[in-house]
Amino acid sequence: MPAFKTKTCFFEKDPSVALYRRALSEAVGTLLLVFCVVSAGIEVQRITSNHLAVQAVLAFVTGGVLCGLVVAFGNSSGGHFNPLITALQWLSGDRDIRCTIAYVMSQCAGGVLGALLANFLLSGERPATYPPADLLHLAIAEAITTAGLMIVIFGCMRAQRAMTGPFAVAGWLTAALLAFPTSFMNPAIVLSATWADGIVALPLSRALFLAPAEIVGAVTALAVITAAYPRSKQAATDSLPTDA
């Protein structure tokens, strides 16, 4: 874990806290995020079939829930709830592989459990068929929205603006989901959606197509951030992991 001398967002306040505690925060946070998104999708579909209304509800629920969760768990684990954030921190040398694996596994497990819990409590139905989709356009949109999200997150992080992250992320997610309602921008949510009922449900074949697009978007974002915020040798040394 990083030992930043300047406080920033999406890093835990005390990296010496036991890894299982920090991973638990990631699991619970992702569980609550997916639970709320899937539940909202099931409920709003029961109330209205208006596409714009459904799109708006899911966009604002996702942005609002994530903002609250990042504020709540940010000091504990960094408040990622998204394997892409964790993986890009590892690629940047800011997080070790042991922590990265623990976080990603916790995020995926928490997300699937959140989807199953929403299914159980709301007795949602999984669609028998899915609307036809142009997979190429879906993948391009997924890559662009994911890149935008990662640029917002890592831009706030590199700019060392500790409290801007949650609100910047909520703003981007809300706007992106209103513009591209088919976007997920999070492999843990894509995985969870394959288990979910209601409008959020995603067929496995489509999920396998979206996940690589998210990875492409995330790597592109890392290249942009690296160019926009070049690190000095001292800054890179200060951010090297200091514990396991």
Report a brief summary of the structure:
This protein has 244 residues and is an all-alpha fold.
What features would you describe in this structure?
By secondary structure, the protein is mostly helical. It has a single domain, classed as Up-down Bundle (Glycerol uptake facilitator protein). Helices cover 69% and strands 0% of the residues. It has 9 helices and no strands. The chain has helices at 19-47, 51-77, 83-91, 97-122, 135-158, 165-179, 187-193, 204-228, 233-238. Helix 4 (97-122) packs parallel to helix 7 (187-193). The chain is globular and about 50 Å long.
Order of helices and strands: HHHHHHHHH
What is the assigned CATH homologous superfamily?
Glycerol uptake facilitator protein
Query: How many structural domains?
Result: 1
Terminal-residue CA separation: 7 Å
The proportion of residues forming helix, as a percent range, comes to 55-70%
CATH T-level topology = Glycerol uptake facilitator protein
Question: What is the count of helical runs?
Answer: 9
- The poorly predicted ranges are 239-244
Task: Give the CATH architecture.
Answer: Up-down Bundle
- Secondary-structure-based class equals mainly alpha
Please report which band the strand proportion falls in: under 5%, 5-15%, 15-25%, 25-35%, 35-45% or over 45%: under 5%
Radius of gyration: 17 Å
Profile the largest sheet. Answer: none
Basic shape: globular
- Output the CATH class name: Mainly Alpha
Organism: Rhodanobacter hydrolyticus
Membrane topology: Multi-pass membrane protein
Transmembrane segments: 23-42, 54-74, 101-123, 135-157, 169-195, 207-229
Subcellular location: Endomembrane system
